[in-house]
User: Fold these one by one.
Assistant:
Number 1:
Amino acid sequence: MPAAVYDGGGVITVRDVDVPTVGADDVLVEVSHCGICGTDLHLVLGDHARPGSVLGHEWAGSVAALGAGVAGWELGTPVVATPEPGCGVCRACMRGRPSVCLRRDPPDYLSFRGAFSRFVTVPARRLARLPAGLSTRVAALTEPTAIALHTVTLAKLEPTDRILVTGAGPVGLLTTAVLASRGFHDVTVVEPSPLRRARALAVGAATAIDPGELPVPEIGLPVAEPFTVVFECSGHAAAAEAALDQLDYAGTFVFVGTGHDPTRVNHNRFIVLELTAIGAFNYDADGFTSALGLLASGALPTDLLIEPTDITLDALASTITALARTEIAGKVLVRPEVSA
Ligand SMILES: [Zn+2]
Ligand SMILES: [Zn+2]
């Protein structure tokens, strides 16, 4: 089967690899579409992925073969894979945070067998059926939508919140759209790319500004029109630091976007304004069910969140570069084929 294999040194090569063997409790899934995530960009452009690995974790597909011990699934059923549930008894699980269950196997970000390939295998217990009417193409947004829902959950928003979203790439756009779907419309997006600013307005932001328009506060005081909550979706330290300066007293800062350079946090400002910082990593306990329901409801502008033209495996490397240059606003979906 064709797969986009990471060869090291930032190089991705499309080649034929063996179809993965299906264990007794596994299901073989034929991938329909797999989204390109910021994590994939970091793993490739930062040369963090292990050579020989196949990336891609935002996918949907259909059941193609069943392990010997699997019952209850039919070939052709459209599915996504859900995360392993938490143990239910550790400190994190008891606090409703199964994403960071203390008894989870350590995640392997570097060498996992992902879905930039025609087939993947998944333990049958992790499969979820798509709701009626939801295409596998749109369902490829399930995982990032579950992340956006989780960030919004963790922020514990109030109806009166003034929200700032930094970065209008795929994560910031999806966060903005999820906020709008939940009734939060006082959302300002800060983003240097005019293309991405326009898309942010189209998916639900009330205002979109250039980072240069953000004011610098006086020491120990909020800016003139502060925000109560920031969702930092860019992963850029400078953006995060400028956004921290925009928070009001008792404001909440949510780190969503990962990035290479650590953010410098002005602890004096945190103390004097009594700010809260939150890291949002994965999903609510019911995150995939909620994400599938939200996507199937039609409440998200998926035609604006997903780029209109899907790519094939051979265009993955060049598209990763274009995404890193912010030449593309929305989520790019990969069809696991090779162009003719
Ligand atoms: Zn992702
Ligand atoms: Zn646990």
Number 2:
Amino acid sequence: MEAAAEGAEQGGGGAGGPEEPVVSLAEVLAENEELEKEARAVLGGSDHERCSYSQGAVKRQALYACSTCTPAGEEPAGICLACSYECHGTHKLFELYTKRNFRCDCGNSKFKNLQCKLLPEKGKVNSGNKYNDNFFGLYCTCKRPYPDPEDEIPDEMIQCIVCEDWFHGRHLGAVPPESGDFHEMICQACMKHCHFLWAYASQLAVPALTKVNSLEDKGIILNVEESEEQKKEIKKESGVEHQEKEEGKQIEQFNEPSTSSGSSCPEIVTKSEDPVCKLKELQSKQFLKKDTATFWPSNWRSKLCTCEDCLKMYSELEVQFLTDECDTVLAYENKGTSDQETDRRDPLMDTLNSMNRVQQVELICEYNDLKTELTDYLRRFADEGTVVKREDIQHFFEEFQSRKRRRTNRMQYYCS
Ligand SMILES: [Zn+2]
Ligand SMILES: [Zn+2]
Ligand SMILES: [Zn+2]
Ligand SMILES: [Zn+2]
Ligand SMILES: [Zn+2]
Ligand SMILES: [Zn+2]
């Protein structure tokens, strides 16, 4: 995972010199785990050796933009993880985290002076790719770099799952809930684009944090509603009227000449329930439409209607991925984790399978010896809080080799 961990730092421009840092083993272990977790999150599902171009538009992958090859003012281009290492290793890269449905641009017509070392044969452009200002290192509605040297306000950036741009928590039109309380965020512009989601928001969304309401409401917290009629004071009683007005608008927008029988809306997900459109049902109730981002819990996507009409609407709005739980960053990260666990196990299993019984026993013994002895050896350092240096590890392996020689000379297949 070393290479990947280094890669995760590429965007930040970490210099990572050849110097060996001197730290205690406990720190090394803790830090490695953190780095590995972080790297796994971004790089987990991506191939770091082969250019992903041959896979076509990859469902989700770690992406980079190279400001050396395609600086601002030029056409935006995105490159895959493997290309970021192999073809742009010394260049200034923007780390774009992960994006969906993207095909690697490395070396195509957008690159004037660069040929891809991994897969030089590429089409001129990838017409299906979507680009935004992230490809020039600018984020959010405020179009700022990240990290931003001129921004002193500590603020977490949150990625919108529709446009995949990143936003300052304070530029979402609403105060985001605690980060552990929601799973996905949809930005203001994308909520305008996907206005049907407001009907779901009343049922599913995690409420934005509220400014304390001065009305003497009996323990009920009203959300900060910044509706189109912002100026009107929202009193509790009039809040209902307000909702009804919004609802009226919604019905106008969405109720196409109603297809009378429910059978035109077959349910795919829940078989037992009546085959009705969940969206139409929600739209017949009261809900609010605001000019804010929205925040969603895990598994909310599976609650979206998948009737024929809705699927058609998703594709018209180019948001078909919304009904796909596997599109989430979490699903991608989990895939990376399980892929790596398979990777880790495989070499040993492959070796074992190719050996005869005696060789297998020998290898397992040796492995167990090594593991026990190395653990014991390292524990001494951890207990004393002293640092492990390269020489120490070298020393251990030299010792281990000579002990092993002694042992195997004595008796052949003895497992200590
Ligand atoms: Zn590539
Ligand atoms: Zn480059
Ligand atoms: Zn390349
Ligand atoms: Zn911003
Ligand atoms: Zn968005
Ligand atoms: Zn529907």
